[in-house]
Design brief:
Oligomer: single chain
Shape: globular
Number of strands: 40
Helix content: under 10%
Strand content: over 45%
Number of helices: 4
Radius of gyration: 24 Å
Length: about 525
C-alpha cells in the first residue's frame, strides 16, 4: 500500500476568509451562561436544549433550557422525583424530537431506571415511566449501573444494566432496545462467559438496525488475576446480543493482537470492525479491517496496513528522528505510534469505511511540599496527531494519512482540545483550536524553523483551524478558519455536533461565563 502524505495549500486572502466564514456560519450573540458545565443537545438548526448545574456544589440543581432561533424561550429546574422518592439524573437524549431525561433510583432493595419526557417549555410530561429494574439483595458484591446508548441514526436507543453479583457468581447483564416510538424491539439478560478478573468489556455498540454488539478483551492471568498489559492480551471477542443469547465471534489474527477497535454497520446487518493491532513487543503495528457476518458466522472481508517508519516519523523534527534512530540501533525498539482514540467512523455508500483517530494521553505528576507534607497533583492532557484512513469493502486500504497537531492543557480535562467535524460525500472537514504562528498572514498553514507551535489560548495567538480531507485520496488542506479576535470566544470542538439528516454542524464557543452558538450548513 502506498502511503500518501501530500499537503495541499489553498491560498486566499484573510479578508476573503472572513467573508466565507460569515456566509457559512450563522452566529448567535455572545451571551452570559447562567450555570456551570453546559451540555448541548442539538435538535435541528438553531433550535436546541442545554443543561447546566446551577447553584453551589451541595445546594444546587440541574436546569433545562430551550432555545429557538438561538434565543432562549424557556428554562426550568429538572425534576428528579420518582414514584419512590427522589432519584438521580442518569442521562439525557433527544428521541424523535423529544427531550428525554433518564432517572435512576435505589429503593426497596431495587435499582430502577425511569424515563421522563419534557415539553418545549422545559416541563415534565406526566409521571416518570419505568424502563428497567433489578433486585439488590444484601451481600451482593457490586451495586450495578445503568447505561443508555443511542444508534447513530437516532432510530433506536438501548438501556443496559449490570446486575450485582456475589463473589462466586458470574457477572450478569440486562438490556432493552427501544425504537424512537418507545416500543421494546429486543430485551433479555445474559452472563459474561469470562471471569471479570480475566476480561474487560471494551465496546458497546447499537447499530442503525437496533442490534446490540459487545467487544470483549480477554487476558492471560497469573495467580493474582488479570494482568492489564499489552503482552498479556489473549484474544478479542465480539458478541451479538439477541433476546437471551450471545452469539460469539473470535477475531483470531494469529501473531497479531488487537489493541483498539471500533464498530460501524450498514442496513445489511454486516458489522464492520476496524482499529489498531500490535505484534511482538510493538503495541501498535498498524491498522486492520474486518466485516463480520454473524448470521453465517464468518469474516467476509479483511485487510491490514502496517505503519511504515517513514509514515510514523513524517512530521518529526530532525532531532526527534535522530534520537529515535539511536534508540533503535541500541535495540530499544523501532519508532511506533501509541495512545490513539477513535473520533469518527463513517460507513461509505460503497460499503467501505473511513476512520479518524486522535492521539490522546494524560500525564499525572504529583509533588510533595517537604515543609508541610501537602501534595499537589497536576494532570496534563495531550491531544496530538490525527490519523485518517479509508478501507474498501473488500478490505483494501486505499490510503492512510497522518496530520500533525499539538494541543496541551493542564487540570482542565482537555476542555478546549480535540476536534469537531462532519463528512460530506467527498470530504471530511474538521475544526480545532490552533496557534496563529502556524499560519501566514493570508491564512495558509506554514511550518517555520521552530516547527509546529502548540495550540494557544491567548487572544492574540488563538485561532481555529479548518482541515479538509479529500476522501478519494486522503490529501488534505489546512488553513486558519477564524481567530479569537473575530469570534470573541474560544471554540469547544468536543461539543460540535453533526446532524446528517439536516446537513448541519452545530458549533459551540465559550469565553469565561459567556457563550455563543454557530450553525454551519453543509
Amino acid at each position: 500500500m502506498k502511503l500518501k502524505s501530500t499537503f495541499l495549500a489553498i491560498a486566499f486572502f484573510a479578508t476573503a476568509n472572513q467573508i466565507t466564514i460569515a456566509q457559512e456560519v450563522e452566529w448567535s450573540e455572545l451571551v452570559k451562561s447562567n450555570g456551570r458545565g453546559t451540555v448541548i443537545y442539538p435538535e435541528q438548526g438553531k433550535n436546541f436544549y442545554t443543561t447546566v448545574w446551577s447553584g453551589g456544589m451541595l445546594a444546587g440543581n440541574y436546569q433545562l433550557k430551550r432555545y429557538e432561533d438561538f434565543m432562549p424561550i424557556a428554562q426550568e429546574k429538572i425534576v428528579l422525583k420518582t414514584e419512590s422518592g427522589v432519584g438521580s439524573l442518569n442521562d439525557m437524549i433527544i428521541v424523535n424530537g423529544k427531550m428525554v431525561i433518564f432517572l435512576s433510583d435505589k429503593a426497596d432493595k431495587q435499582n430502577k431506571l425511569y424515563y421522563q419526557l419534557y415539553t418545549e417549555s422545559c416541563t415534565p410530561v406526566g409521571i416518570p415511566t419505568l424502563l428497567a429494574e433489578y433486585e439488590m439483595p444484601k451481600g451482593w458484591n457490586k451495586s450495578g449501573y445503568f447505561n443508555v446508548i443511542q444508534s447513530k441514526n437516532k432510530a433506536f436507543f438501548c438501556v443496559e444494566y449490570s446486575i450485582p453479583s456475589t463473589k462466586t457468581e458470574s457477572e450478569r447483564f440486562g438490556y432493552k432496545v427501544y425504537n424512537n416510538e418507545f416500543n421494546v424491539v429486543s430485551e433479555g439478560e445474559y452472563e459474561s462467559p469470562y471471569d471479570p478478573k480475566e476480561a474487560d468489556i471494551t465496546n458497546h455498540y447499537l447499530s442503525n438496525t437496533g442490534d446490540l454488539f459487545l467487544g470483549l478483551k480477554v487476558y492471560n492471568t497469573n495467580d493474582r488475576g488479570k494482568v492489564r498489559d499489552y503482552t498479556s492480551l489473549k484474544k478479542y471477542l465480539i458478541f451479538l446480543i439477541k433476546d437471551n443469547d450471545m452469539t460469539e465471534m473470535n477475531l483470531d489474527l494469529g501473531d497479531k493482537r488487537i489493541t483498539d477497535m471500533t464498530f460501524s454497520s450498514d442496513e445489511r446487518r454486516i458489522l464492520t470492525c476496524t482499529g489498531l493491532y500490535g505484534e511482538g513487543s510493538a503495541s501498535t503495528k498498524g491498522a486492520f479491517y474486518f466485516q463480520v457476518d454473524f448470521a453465517n458466522q464468518e469474516i467476509v472481508n479483511e485487510g491490514f496496513s502496517e505503519f511504515t517508519k517513514d509514515f510514523i516519523t513524517q512530521d518529526w523534527s530532525e532531532k526527534q528522528k535522530t534520537k529515535a534512530n539511536k534508540r533503535e540501533e541500541k535495540g530499544k525498539g523501532a519508532p511506533q505510534l501509541y495512545s490513539y482514540d477513535f473520533r469518527e467512523v463513517h460507513t461509505t455508500a460503497d460499503g467501505g469505511v473511513i476512520v479518524v483517530m486522535e492521539q490522546y494521553y494524560v500525564i499525572v505528576h504529583t509533588t510533595r511540599d517537604a515543609r508541610t507534607g501537602a501534595t499537589t497533583t497536576t494532570y496534563t492532557y495531550y491531544y496530538n496527531d490525527i490519523i485518517t484512513y479509508r478501507v474498501q469493502e473488500g478490505g483494501q486500504f486505499e490510503w492512510i494519512q497522518k496530520m500533525n497537531k499539538r494541543q496541551v492543557s493542564t487540570n482542565d480535562g482537555g476542555y478546549y482540545s480535540s476536534i469537531g467535524g462532519y463528512f460530506t460525500d467527498d470530504k471530511f472537514i474538521m475544526f480545532f483550536n490552533d496557534n496563529t504562528k502556524n499560519y501566514t498572514e493570508t491564512g495558509d498553514f506554514f511550518l517555520g524553523e521552530k516547527g509546529l507551535y502548540a495550540a494557544s489560548y491567548r487572544k492574540k495567538t488563538n485561532c481555529v483551524a479548518k482541515v479538509e480531507i479529500d476522501l478519494t485520496n486522503g490529501e488534505y488542506s489546512r488553513n486558519r478558519y477564524t481567530s479569537r479576535e473575530e469570534t470573541a470566544a474560544y471554540a469547544v470542538p468536543k461539543k460540535f455536533t453533526a446532524d446528517y439528516i439536516n446537513s448541519e454542524l452545530f458549533m459551540y464557543f465559550q469565553y469565561g461565563k459567556k457563550e455563543k452558538f454557530g450553525l454551519l450548513k453543509f
